[in-house]
Amino acid sequence: MAAHTKITNRVSPAMERTGQWVFSQDIPADILIQVGEAKFPLHKFLLVAKSNYIRRLILESKDPDTTRLDLSNIPGGAEIFEKAIKFCYGVNFEITVHNVAALRCAAEYLEMTDEYCDGNLAGRTDDFLVQVALTSLSGAVVVLKSCEDLLPIAEEINIVQRCVELAAAKACNEANFPSRSPPNWWTEELSIVHITFFAKIIASMKSRGAKPLTIASAIITYTERALPDLVRDRSGNSVTASISIDTSARIHQRELLNAIVSLLPVETQRASFPINFLSCLLRAAIFLENDDVCKKQLEKRISAILEHVTVDDLLVLSYTFDGERLFDLESVRRIISGFVEKEKSVSVFNGGDFREPSLTTAMLRVAKTVDAYLGEIATIPELSISKFNGIANLVPKNARKVDDDLYRAIDIYLKAHPNLDEIEREKVCSVMDPLKLSYEARVHASQNKRLPVQIVLHALYFDQLQIRSDKNGRSTPTPDAISMRSQVQADVSLAKENEALRTELLQMKAYISDIQNKNQVGSTSARINPKKPTFFSSVSKKLGKLNPFKHGSKDTSHIEDGNDVDLTKPRRRRFSIS
């Protein structure tokens, strides 16, 4: 009953409005035309005089006294049909840029053309398009926007193409000779149309020779309006609200992003798109799980201009929209790798070595950016050593004049991951060359307790050699310094053996103390003579006599059971180079 009431309320106004402008109430309606849920009581002879389609329907009907027609498929629905029959009855109504496309399509559907009747609806709407609607960019865009619900007939009668061509021509003219402020106002106008029509406009602008920067400006504005929650605004501020997209919306936005990326023009020597915009597009592609073709195209564009990328641009790719979780770093790896491969190709073309690209300004910039980027992500707990080293090793060794920035990133990583053992810390430090540290960095490294002993010894050796050769620690490594690597490695091995032996002795001491404590608990009257040798203390003494570092650390051969053991580190041997 409620549904019937709702339909009645919708039908009654249409019938009432029709009764108000039907030219004579003395002549009863002889046909009822239904459009959707609306019904229109009308007169056949007036409709047949203007509409060849209605005339044919009546003539081809098996019932010569046809009193009912269904025109629910008419473009524009009941509202536009009402205006069309007003035209048949000679009732004035207003044609605007918002309804002219629908009226033109309805005239085509009803065959209300000038061939059938002079001065018909089709001719009137065509005149309005030429004289009013398609004389400005705004008018063309509004008409084009209204065509979204009029397909495919709007394309068949060429309304879409006419609007596209005029919009493209006006946009190119405004880009070259702005007529109002701000100069890029025309990009806002284009951003309201559907992506399909926008793609047609961009294609037309390209065919007219529009500059890549002009095309880029239109695409950026359109993207910011179409994907406001996934792309940063022009001030560089990211979205603060949490992003929650359901499945249907995600599919729609994924298709939209694919279409936008396909519109990006071929880059010339000058980058047309801001790096931050490309980074945001790639982050959105990762978030929306776009196909590899879309993501790789964006990665290739960023890689081509990586020398101009900042740390913030790379961080856009690395974190989720809330900035709390680390994204997959594979895109960043591919971007850096692509740039290095490009530099290698250029090096080979210039007669260099493919294995080591030539040291260019661009390579130096990228090396500093990558090291600074590593320092930013090093604090993330879930960042593994393999991923950290994988990114660091993408930059060729000769691309860093000094390893200070890389050392800073390593130090941050070690500080953020305090539970790493000696071997793991050595793996982290393996990407760095201690001999390429500046004097200040070597001083810091020599006092850094987080570094493995191997790195500390490297720093101390090189620093001593530099002082002796009066280089003040600021010149490039000398051949003598580089030749000392083997000696440092040997000393490191000895130091490791010493540390291992001390660890075994401490474990043995702890084991003996544990047994003594258990004996004291079992028998309170019996006391263990601390001077009485036991089996384990004898073993400990024998092991102490075999200590190869007897003179380099404390002699453990006189350790007696029950006595406290001095756990201080052995005095480091002075590595003299005299």
UniProtKB/TrEMBL annotation:
Q: Which Gene3D superfamilies match?
A: Potassium Channel Kv1.1, Chain A
Q: What family classification does the UniProt entry report for this protein?
A: Belongs to the NPH3 family.
Domain NPH3 span(s) in chain numbering: 184-466
- Listed Basic and acidic residues bias regions: 552-566
UniProt name for this protein: Putative phototropic-responsive NPH3 family protein
User: What gene is this protein translated from?
Assistant: RPT2
Keyword terms of this UniProt record: Phosphoprotein, Ubl conjugation pathway
Q: Which domain of life is it from?
A: Eukaryota
Which portions of the sequence form the region Disordered?
546-566
Which Gene Ontology terms describe the biological processes this protein takes part in? protein ubiquitination
